[in-house]
User: Fold these one by one.
Assistant:
Number 1:
Amino acid sequence: MKLYVFRVAPNPTRVRLCIAEKRAAGVEIDLPEVLVNLAKGEQRAPEHLARNPLGTLPVLELDDGSFLSESGAIIEYLEELYPEPSLLGAGPLERARNRELERLAELGVLGPVARIVHATKSPLGLPPIPEVAAASRRILPDVLRVLDAGLADGRPFFGGDRPIVADCTLQAALQFARFAEIDLELPERVARWDRNYREREVARSVLVV
Ligand SMILES: N[C@@H](CCC(=O)N[C@@H](CS)C(=O)NCC(=O)O)C(=O)O
């Protein structure tokens, strides 16, 4: 297998953080990365469109030569290939709660952050759309408050003592905001989680900013 990525881009980054978390826990994952330079428009080259007609990253190339796109699908596939230690937790309810957090982090933070960045100072050169940025900004405070409440018992990660997919997704989103120098006004516990998460060697091995 091979993983097509671009550093800093949030969807590839959340997959890369999940893989790094597994590796840090001792799981051997043989998955070389191939860079597709989004800043140079390489995602629109015919060879990448053959991997993913939507021209986005990440893409996982399977050993039979077929391709899997969508970061969530790739994370779940790798989670099933390498189930231990789980990045979703144990038991139906814990896994459901952790998926709930992951969906909040993806749809409520990563999506809006990506839209704010691309609607204000797009690294892909997209035109500014102030109303899209403003609408996305309005979504963030409520979701961040809910995520902040999830850390109220002092747990170091959203799933408890170990990182889960939600940690990886949220950090990928926050990195993209840092990269674009967008202040998200993080609530206190999320801000502390952010600092602690980033200090870890495993995070430093993936994050650029
Ligand atoms: N829903 C997709 C979104 C993929 C996506 O939009 N990826 C961005 C990078 S974070 C991309 O490749 N953008 C390039 C472009 O739109 O030209 C996923 O979860 O993988």
Number 2:
Amino acid sequence: MPPLRIYNTLTRTKETFAPLVPGKVGMYVCGPTVYDYFHVGNARTFTVFDMVVRWLRASGYAVTYVRNVTDVDDKIMDRARANGETIEALTARMIGALEEDCARLGLVKPDREPRATRNIDAMLDLIAMLEKKGLAYRASNGDVFYSVRDFPGYGKLSRRNLDELRAGERVAVDDAKRDPLDFALWKAAKPGEPAWPSAFGAGRPGWHIECSAMSCRELGVPFDIHGGGWDLQFPHHENEIAQSEGALDRPYVGCWMHSAFLNMAHEKMSKSLGNFHTTREVLDSLDGVQGGEQLRYFLLHGHYRSPLSYGRDSLDDAGNTLRGFYATLREVPPEAAALDWTQPHAARFRDAMDDDFDTPAAFAVMHELRGEVNRSRSGELSGVLRALGATIGLLQADPAAFMQGAVTLDVAALVEERIAARKAREFARADRIRRQLEAAGVALEDKPDGTTEWRRK
Ligand SMILES: [Zn+2]
């Protein structure tokens, strides 16, 4: 296996990846809270770790990929109440939608998707171990808290100043905590809330204990990679470390990976496209079969540790770029052959991916290779292009079918929209529409009187 280097949030350095068992990788990613369709920001996190899993597998590792489902939580209870449905009905509906949307995004199904409500026993075991070690205490309000002051390593992942954090914590009126940073492991039952019997009294688990218990149960501790969105470093992942290492007295995770935010750009959206925020809405607004791959390409075109701006223009650019790749694959049919990593483009692609999953550099190699295929008309090189795409879940659709979708655009409506944009002097929008039409094989000719004629090339 070639050396792979991954940025470890815990050490703040790129490290050579060395799994605990050679050739095998255990990976846990914090999954969604199923109270609504998932946000396109979550789609970035899931797509990034999907890319990581695929690349590890393409590199020869046997990966066990675990992504949990949080199906008990305040947001879920509130939403179920607002909808007038049971928690079970809401979470079942949202888990169904999650599976559909993940499939549309082309995400590989995790090997295991443990649900919080089915792992309460493992959480209670962990809480009991923490209490025995003096790391958990029962508070006057019936909740069980983690005692942050009694875990010396607290703060090592997020490297926050704990005293500043303490000062910043609002003190609740009936605060039962010993330290403002202590967090609930078990919440005493309240009327109308789901509750499970336990040695600590009837109640429900806190959010953080869920991930410690399910990752320990599914992968054993320590395991190789723990992933999640950037914002989970504190307090969620810090608390996971405190719980798991505090209870088990051994390191919890080898490498912590965090994907950066998807910034929602406040760009002016065209009326026909709308301003969408759930992954489902975004996918619905895109062209059928290609939409999932278009969103995937967009989400991976920036480096996973750099913030990415979500905007309709960049999403459309991703679609145009993909159509360009598929046009090449249609014109120069790829020869099927095993990927030869000594082929120069393949070698550079691998170097990029092995350097902390540098997808922008890997995509640049694919662009160059596409140019090479167009020049040489080499089916062999076209085959390399397609095979490289496969390692990260791209370019596997039938090129003819993919391009077919592109010409189902409502050309007349887009031409009108472009004329309106030009009149309003919104030239960036007008250019974007022109690029979109050209990529779909439509030629435009602007007339001196402000009208535009178009024909299919
Ligand atoms: Zn988690």
Number 3:
Amino acid sequence: MDARLETNRALWDELVSLHVRTPHAYDLESFRAGSSTLKAIEVEEVGDVQGRRLLHLQCHFGMDTLSWARRGAQVVGADFSAQAIALARRLSEEVGVPARFVCSDLYELPKRLDGEFDVVFTSYGVLCWLPDLVRWGEVIAHFLAPGGLFYIVEQHPVGGMLSERGGELVASGSYFDSGAIEETKDGSYADRNAVLENKTSYEWQHPLSDIINALTRAGLRVEFLHEFPFCMFQWLPLMVRGEDGWYRVPGRENVPLLFSLKASKG
Ligand SMILES: C[S@@+](CC[C@H](N)C(=O)[O-])C[C@H]1O[C@@H](n2cnc3c(N)ncnc32)[C@H](O)[C@@H]1O
């Protein structure tokens, strides 16, 4: 595996043990009591999954994967973090919801997992960890059954170029993919103040055109693309959580922070 992805994997292994201690972000107690971690956007836009074979890419420790299973899907979750997959398997047993979890780098998954799926799903904080979206599109197409659908709900790439200066939003980064962005920092989206052992990460910025072209190049047909002026976590300190649980920049409802996309395989 690419050395930069190995570095990211060490970070994600560490983040699993951090995220189980962040109930505002990963509410394991409610989940164990039967609640779903899925948000209304993906539940409505993916539609009925009863009896459908669903593959969840970059599933972290599987709360969303198991939530799809609670809605009747036959689920497989995949992630490259061994810690995440071990916890996902434990959770599946603990809550009595059947699921299969596969530990694999996304790009290696076709070598590690057989079968085809009616739905390939991925969400909230996944694309920035992938250096190559053309190969990502090929992996999705590989696993989709004819007539199957791909769905993603994700941070908007416009948000990726924004930062905060003096309480104001500023466009400080590139909208376009300008190669690996190496960062050395503490904290995670679930706990800004956490001190980490694995501080280095590599991320990539992907404009909407690259996302859509990767899917169409892999033979998928885009059914819709939606954009929203809110996102799922406090990306920048000036964002405020609304009663609906989404984070917004006060007074800036004109900036896209989230998108969702559905595509199908003919
Ligand atoms: C932000 S999390 C996804 C969060 C998920 N939507 C949730 O709410 O729990 C990103 C996930 O991508 C995984 N990941 C990052 N790079 C990967 C790669 N190259 N192959 C497979 N999984 C990867 C990480 O281990 C992590 O679990």
Number 4:
Amino acid sequence: MIVSFVQTKGGTGKSTLALNTAFSRRIQKQFQSIALVELDPQGSLKNWWIQREEEGRNTEKVSFHHISSTQKAVFQSGITAIAEHNELIIMDIPGESTGKLHTRFACASSDLVIIPMRTSTNDELAFADNLYPIIREITNIAPEKRKTFHVLPSFTHPQSNNKKIFEYFSDILPSHLECMGVVYPHRSVYENFNRDGMNLMEYAFSVEQNKRNAVQASRAVMDIEEISKNIIDLLERNNGSPKKKKKTR
Ligand SMILES: Nc1ncnc2c1ncn2[C@@H]1O[C@H](COP(=O)(O)OP(=O)(O)O)[C@@H](O)[C@H]1O
Ligand SMILES: [Mg+2]
């Protein structure tokens, strides 16, 4: 199964979300092998992973793959090969710099496309101009793909009323495009956790003794767990994943 974080606009949290969901407890529990794939020639996750290796951190069930090619045939066959050995692929897709080739590929080939987006006119316009035309093109050919695309309200104020945020998105988004039932709040810990190749969970552990930082970090860990839970629920809903299906009452 393939989950992609896509947004033609840069700096919306794609890479941060990709790496932390890959290491989340829920994803770790659900899947036996997880490939974190960076399809970005710039390779910010690659540098982070190299630091992880230098620090000798536990990779858990995650393997990292960086595909720097901008040729579709190359990254397409790369993903096919990775899919043979991994139950879940989490793809980090670059912004506009690569002529949207990666975006198009991710939108067409993923089981779930998560679109982190702020409640701002800027993000709204960028989405309408750049990403939505690609989604529309794909869903016109394959209407069943509509359920694949989900907006994740991102950089929301930690104290904001989530219900209002969901209403905002249901107003501005085309009717068939769903908003996830969870938000990705703005928190300064997301700017600091990744030094020395740490993931959020490891960071939370490292600041356990500092009460203030520990509270912030554990809130962020909970955000990621909630987002991961939503991802799993959506995958099960869309694909009827037979794995570890819980009995419903
Ligand atoms: N929830 C968040 N709150 C505050 N800052 C964040 C959050 N998520 C990411 N950031 C910061 O914003 C910047 C862009 O994040 P990144 O994940 O690299 O976005 P993208 O991959 O979409 O370009 C980084 O400096 C990151 O540390
Ligand atoms: Mg990125």
